[in-house]
Amino acid sequence: MNNSSFRTYRLQVVVFFSFLALFSLIVAGIVFYGYRSNSEIMLQSSDELLYQISETVIRQTSNHLDPARKTGTLLKKLIERGTSFAKSPELIETISLETLSIYPQFSSVYLGDENGNFVMSRRLDNGNFSTKIVSRTSEPAGITEIDRDADWQIIATHSSSVLNFDPRERPWYVLAKSEGTTVWSREYRLFTDQVPGITCAHPVFSDDGFFIGAVGIDFRLYELAEFLKSLKIGESGIAFISDSEGNVLAYPEKSGLPTENIKTPRSPTRESLKTGPIKTAIETFLSQKQFKFIYDHHGDRYIASFRPFPENFGRDWVLGIIVPEDDFIGPIARIHETTLLFSFWLLIIAGFLTSTIAKELTDPIKRLTAEASRIQNLDFDGSIDLRSPISEIQQMGETMDSMKKALGAFKKYVPSEIVQGLVHSGDEARLQAHAEKITLMFTDISDFSAITERVLPTDLVQQLSEYFDCLAAIMHSHGGTIDKYIGDSVMAFWGAPARDDRQAEHACNAALAIEQKIKKLNEKWLSEKKDQLKTRIGINTGIALIGNFGSSDRFNYTAVGDNVNLASRLEGLNKLYGSEIIVSESTVSDAGNSFIFRPLDLVAVKGRQKSVKIFQLLGRKDSPDAEKMEHLADMAEKALNSYLNRNWRESYEQFQEILEIQPEDAAAEMYLTRCRELHDRPPGTDWDGVFRIQHK
User: Are 66-222 and 436-592 equal in CATH topology?
Assistant: First the structure.
């Protein structure tokens, strides 16, 4: 960067002015101390007031709604004892009207049955009553509506043969049937009144326990709004009821419940409210999960209190109360008004200085801190174009930019996981190693030598770059550390430098992901008329020496040991068994129960006397063709067990069955040859079934 023409200042000068501004603020703070102290006392006293109001509202609301549970239970029992629609819809109507007369808060009482019959009595706004009878099982079928006055005398009767209402499709009926017990519905638009409401639904059962219908009692939510409107909370406080998701059910403005925007089955949402402070309070409550807080709304400060209804209430309702802060501290504010005027100009000046100085000082430092964090995470992309009037900060930015470029070049040669481990530990890199349980993976490209003979070097390098980018991305995303690239091979491990208790699982998931990704790449390369690449993978879990190896001035963080050699040998065995992913028994043991492994053989690889059982990783148990893979694995296990038990004829037949399912199964064909030879020339009693491999 060239910032020689950019003017800078000494940090000492900036600090001087910062202290000057801080002094001014201290003077202002003293002035405000008394005001804040008294204000806090008043605000603390508001807690008890809001608590008492909350107790009262919740108790009265519960008393308002609870009769629906008890009454509905009585109606349910009455019907279960023999009062049915078919027998007497008039009796059901009479019972419903009696219930509405006793409980003025009920808007409707009704019964629906499994045949689609329905009887509902509801209270009208003028004090009269209306009954709707939907009959599907009696003759003639249709709908009858009866208008009655306040004394239940019939005013008019209307009949229709059009059956446009089915109780079995309504939310309250569906809910009662599915739950099998008394339930409260979610908030929805009442069918008849077309206003927001809720329903207390009770399932009705026959003597033998079968569901035969449901009793419902409706409440119109604006009645709760009228109740909330009657509350006196400070000078201008407001109480409202919402659910746990922030949907407002009632608040002290009946006109504020916009019924035209209600969508079944929900009630008015906070977005549809005209009363802004309620919306802001709910959003703050949902985001901060605090039951009491102070917030700003268009320059006005409010005290908000939220309290959930008790669990036995049966609904996830929350009572909210908002009160302007000025209702409590307004008198104190007026007392301190003269004092505030005295310090006003001092605070303006101090605030301006503090804001300006803080911005000039902290903004560049914040940027440098962010860049330092990116460098710590080995993110060296982009340059640092920093301009600061403070010379020391400007110089720091230029130095960090140079360091970032140097480390960016360094990252291309050293695995980022190793560098991160050194950075986080704070230790100097030195020659050292320790024994650690890790999971190792070796990958190789099948018949790579033949590919190199027929592909131009420039084209091969481009294709290999795409291939290695794919493998590296998958290994990193599954928590693996790439050790080195060896020609067309890759060595990686899990469990170091960062410990990984699920290393085997992560390595297996990475192998399957590589297998799937290479298939997609091969499809693309085929369309581009390029050679397809087949990846062979070997995985082994065990103890290895892991750490820094090399000379005193040149290190290589790697793993060495017998288990490393075994992982490499397992990769090479894929060619013999016609597989793509071979894992050791230790890996299978640690990988968990999420994978399907096919047992392949009991082998002793070159350079290793001890035998090891090897498996082919087929896939995950949650894959679409898991059933087919598990069947193959079971067949292979039975066939291998027969082979190891010297039952070569039985093993031959079992491997023959595998070939019938998979005609190109190389492992099964190999075992057919082995079984024929062993059957014709049986081995001695010292035969242990171990296949000893002398080649790499």
Answer: no
List, in sequence order, every residue forming a beta bridge with 238; answer none if it has no partner.
Answer: 322
Q: Residue 521 corresponds to which tokens in the numbers above?
A: 């790449």
pLDDT tens across 322-366, in order?
888 777 665 555 555 666 566 666 656 665 666 666 666 666 767
> Taking residues 14-30, what's their average pLDDT?
59
Q: How far apart are CA 394 and CA 89, in angstroms?
A: 89
CA gap 273, 264 in Å, rounded: 17
Query: Bridge partners of 146?
Result: 131, 157
Domain residue ranges of the chain, discontinuous segments joined by + = 66-222, 231-332, 436-592, 620-696
Q: Which amino acid is at 541?
A: T
pLDDT digits over 377-400, tens only? 666 666 766 676 667 677 776 776
- In whole angstroms, give the CA distance from residue 254 to residue 318: 19
Residue 160 CB burial class (10 angstroms; 0-12, 13-18, ≥19)? exposed
Which sign does the torsion angle of CA 52, 55, 59, 60 carry?
positive
CA nearest to 563, candidates 537, 539, 544: 544
Long-range contacts of 339-347 (CB under 8 A, 24+ apart): 339/31, 339/34, 339/35, 340/31, 340/32, 340/35, 342/31, 343/27, 343/28, 343/31, 343/32, 346/24, 346/27, 346/28, 347/24, 347/25, 347/28
Residue pair 586/541 in contact (Cβ under 8 Å)? The answer is yes
Among candidate residues 158, 174, 218, 214, the one with its CA nearest the CA of residue 192: 218
Residues facing residue 686 across a β-bridge:
none
DSSP string across 541-592: EEEEEEEEEEETTEEEEEEESHHHHHHHHHHHHHHHHT-SEEEEHHHHHHH-
272: number of CA atoms within 13 Å, CB side? 19
CATH number of 231-332: 3.30.450
Residue with tokens 């603020």: 25
CATH 3.30.450.20 for domain 66-222, yes or no, is yes
Residue 137: how many other CB atoms lie within 10 Å: 11
Measured from the Cβ of residue 197, the count of other Cβ atoms closer than 10 Å reads 23
Helix (H, G, I), strand (E, B) or coil at 228: helix
d(CA 419, CA 425): 10
Greater confidence (92 vs 333) lies with: 92
Closest CA to 514 of 544, 474, 482: 474
**How far is 198 from 267, CA to CA, in rounded Å?**
9
**234-280 per-position pLDDT tens digit:** 677 888 888 777 777 777 765 444 444 333 333 445 455 545 788 88
Distance CA(314)–CA(198), nearest Å, equals 12
Cβ-Cβ contacts under 8 Å for 543 (sequence gap 6 or more): 435, 436, 437, 561, 563
Contact status, residue 238 vs residue 252, Cβ threshold 8 Å: yes
Report how far residue 656's alpha carbon sits from residue 487's, in angstroms, rounded to the nearest whole number: 38
- Superfamily of the domain at 436-592: Nucleotide cyclase, GGDEF domain (3.30.70.1230)
Lowest-pLDDT choice from 40-44, 199-203, 252-256, 491-495: 252-256
Q: Is the dihedral of CA 677, 682, 686, 687 positive or negative?
A: positive
SS3 378: coil
CA–CA distance, 379 with 372 (Å, rounded to integer): 10
pLDDT of residue 256: 40
> What number of CA atoms fall less than 13 Å from residue 52's CA on the CB side?
9
Block residue for tokens 């419940």: 257
Q: What 3-state class would DSSP assign to 336?
A: coil
Give this prediction's pTM.
0.47
Nearest to 599 by CA among 662, 664, 541, 643: 643
Q: Smallest Cα–Cα separation from 310: which of 95, 78, 554, 63?
A: 63
